[in-house]
Amino acid sequence: MQTNLNETKLSINVPIEKILPAVVGIVALFLGLWTALARLGWAVPTGTAIAASEHGQLMLAFIGTVIGLERAVASGRSWAYLAPWLSGLGAVFLLLNMPMQSAALAVFLGSLVLIALFNVFLQTQRTDFMLVMGAGVVCWAIGNAAWLLGVPIPKLVLWWAGFLILTIVGERLEMSRLRRRSALAQGTFHFLIVLYIVTLVLSMFVHSVALRLNGLVLVAMAMWLIRHDIARVTIKRPGLPRFAAFSMLSGYFWMMSAGLFALVWGNMEVDLRYDAWTHAQFLGFAFVMIIAHAPIILPSLAGVKVTFTRLFYGPLLLLQASLLVRIVADILVWWPGRLWAGMINVAAVLAFLGVLATQVIISNRQPGREKGYEKQT
Question: Which residues have C-beta within 8 Å of that of residue 294, sequence separation ≥ 6?
Answer without folding.
Answer: 306, 352, 356
